[in-house]
Amino acid sequence: MTDQQEQELSTSLDSSSSIGSSLSENNKMYNKLKRQGSRSSVLATRPGRSQSISKDSQKQVMNEDPDTKTWSRHKKHFFILSSAGKPIWTRYGDEAGISSLMGVIQAIISFFQADDDSVKCMNAGHHKFVFQLKDPLYLVAVAKTGESEAHLRDQLLYLHSQILSVLTSLQLTKIFEQRINFDLRRLLSGTEVFLDSLSTLFNNDHGFMLGALQCLRVSKTLRDQIGNALADGRPKDLLYAIIVSNGKLVTLLRPRKHSLHPSDLHLLFNMLTGSTTFRTAESWTPLCLPKLNSKGFLHAYICYIERDTAVVMISTNKDSFFELSDWKKQIVETLTSSGALLKLQQAADESYSASDIGIPALRHFIYKSKMHIQFTCPELEAPYTNPVNRRRLHRLYQRSHDRLHSKTRPLKLYYLAGEHESILGWITSSFELYVVFNATVPKSTVITSSNHLLRWIKKHEDMLFILNSPVF
Amino acid sequence: MSTATKDSPKGNANKDAPSLGRTSPMLSYFCVYNPTVGNKNDENNKEQILFYTAKKVVPLDVKLRQVGLAQALVNFTSAFSPSKSVQTVHTQKARLVFFQAEPNFWLHMSIELGISRYQIRDANGKLRTVTDYLDAELNDDAVEGILHAGYQMYKLLNGTFASVLPHDANTASLQAIRRLKNSIEEFFSDWIWKWDFDRLESMLFSSVFNGIPMQPILRQSYLKIHNITETIADDMKLDIKHLLVFNKDNASLIYHNPQLALSSVQLLRKLIVRLLERWSDMRKAEEWRRTANEEPVASKKDPKITSLKSLTKSFSQKNILSYFGSPSLKPTSAPGSVPDSPIASPEPNLIAALNVTPEIASDSSGTPSPAPSLRQGVFLSGLMKSTLHDSSSDPQHHRNVDIIKVYLDGDSDECNELSHQDACEDLQEYYFVVYKVCVVVDGKQ
Known about the structure:
The complex is a heterodimer of chains A (472) and B (445). Chain A is of the alpha+beta class and 472 residues long. Chain A has three domains: 3-203, Beta-Lactamase (2-Layer Sandwich), CATH 3.30.450.70; 213-349, 2-Layer Sandwich (Beta-Lactamase), CATH 3.30.450; 354-464, 2-Layer Sandwich (Beta-Lactamase). Chain A has 16 helices and 18 strands. In chain A, helix 4 packs antiparallel against helix 7 (192-202) and helix 7 crosses helix 10 (262-274). The longest helix of chain A is centred in the middle third of the chain and has 19 residues, at 149-167. Chain A starts with a helix and ends in an 8-residue tail after the last helix. The model of chain A is unreliable at 1-24 and 35-62 (pLDDT under 50). Chain B is α+β, with helices and mostly antiparallel strands and 445 residues long. In chain B, the strands form three sheets. In chain B, strands 10, 11, 12, 13, 14, 15, 16 and 17 form an eight-stranded mixed β-sheet that branches. The longest helix of chain B is centred in the middle third of the chain and has 31 residues, at 262-292. Chain B: Residues 1-20 are annotated as: Disordered.
């Protein structure tokens, strides 16, 4: 283990080795708050139980329930409850404190069900309440972010998939068939981290909205090198092998007939970002990939081979840990000797920005290649390094996506000129493109610049996307 | 979104059968309730339902359940959105709409979504009926606008709910509650069933947003009308507060008194449209009746009626007509002819709508009436209940002229000085007199 890793190991051991039970309780809460850190939610001190964390000296509240003043100031709430009304997970607040709210939700849902109807969505001022019923779970999102019902519903489905990935659908239905009042929190304990980090990721990652994955930009030769290292010496029960760097896909090895669904990959990436424990040592964990097979468990081997780069191996055999570990050593050796690993880390550190392309007035873009189900977007630079602007940009993308994909009136071309920036949305059979320009750019320039951008992307296609991943 | 229900395969349906039909969205139920009325602690308080109507008969416990659900939704959403509680609820099969007209008074309705049924062949080649609930066809703003429009119209004709019943209605007398219930029922029972949700989007500007078509006129004509209205206001003994002039054919606005707020003009125009419709319906019924009875009719002159007639004429007809003495308005030649829509006229036909404050209305002395046969206009609503006798017809063909009282926000002069939102709480009561001027071209009707 490198020095870095040792350091990280010691710090994580510190945080987890608790002295008194109250301390560990506080630590758990503290970690939970750090994970939940959506800066847009305004939090206030509650006398007697406050704890300041970061250099910002922002005080955060420990326990919340619908009675605290800050409850209505959060921009997006998520609730998961069982069909009997038992709380399972809530994004903000303590599960125990909101059980009455969950009861009300369950009553409302069952009221409509009695009439053979099902409630889908409610509007109140700026708030949207979206209900997703996935027996035996009910999922509710309450948002005043301006996101559309379709997006919120998508996010609820991702949360549901996350729960499935821990339990499998088979187990879930069986549990509730046997005991309808079962408290699912017992089975999920420890994995709420992932639900929390998923909620935060919705606001930062465009991949959920697009249903695609972001790839790291690396030269073709480097990618091929890594791919070759994977293709070599594959253990018998291996299903997938994935190299991830900084939340972006580098390359993956897959069976010829089964490609990995993007939502499964999102769950995997979320696992990596959601918990720091994977950084410290090799991990072996059972998990279910809902889109692949929602009924059974697979096993995942996760190990960080560089500062930000991890290798994830999915296997069908629960006893193959050592085999996979050996194979990982082999891969690391191959890559270090050729210097590929260092180059990879370098590439992960420097990402391209919009100004690198050399198109004036182009601020940011997202390009999704429909064929490869991957997308690329540059790093954010001024003015979007400011969180307010960044959020506005994110909402702008969401609004454009929503309008283009409207179920009743879908569009192919969409142009919105706003006060701060203008956006062009363009859908063809092979790609989806969203380009953001300065507010003052005339339409003709928008079109020529977008074409210019498309040419640039085409030229660099092999660097931006994974065109051929190794198969077996 | 669409949901598929597995029905038994239709026997003789062809491959790729076309749509099996479409049902329009229709009202499921509508209610007006106030949860503070009656015994608050009683869960099954039926007093809180001030009005309820549904497309089929519904037992009381179902009504209470629905109102209970409505309140539960309001409370649930206020926990997250204290400023604005629930407005619409989308369910798979219906749309629920809420509107809090006044503090604690709620208008609530449920609309069943339109259904489109069609058949497809699924993977096994079996025919399957798919039921699509057309959620996207019913626009949220439009259905909310319906409730707004209904309340505005009710307020125009009856004043606010709170004026009959105080907000915190614990102390309200049973009489007051009953009075309120009656007035609500009188208005809403007709009104709510008039809406065709299918054509909502085409009716948006006229019905939901109360748009006013304006009649373009020359500047000189506008000034002429302005002068006329000022002279009317000066000469008549009545205290006319506001005057509006509309085109009879399509009720487009020609002139309105600048002090009258545009929102009031919108509502008054709607009222006029209704009166016109009612009047023309009655005319048609009369025509039909007249052609059915071939007997000659003798006009019976009842002195009492004559005097009433002269009374009504005294403050309006001839005097007004003398002001409208432009050359194109020709008086009718044949006495006793029933005024009718003219075939052609160079000038638009006018309806003058007057708002008169109640105190002066009783004073009806006016100049003596001219020849009773001179008819150039007809009152659609007047200052007192009267029975106008058509001189050529038999006693059955009389028409009641009703009194219409309207409640408008205070004069806009006063409103402008204070903030618009909270200043005009008190409504002013007015009499609304509508006079329809008919131009009859010589000889023709």
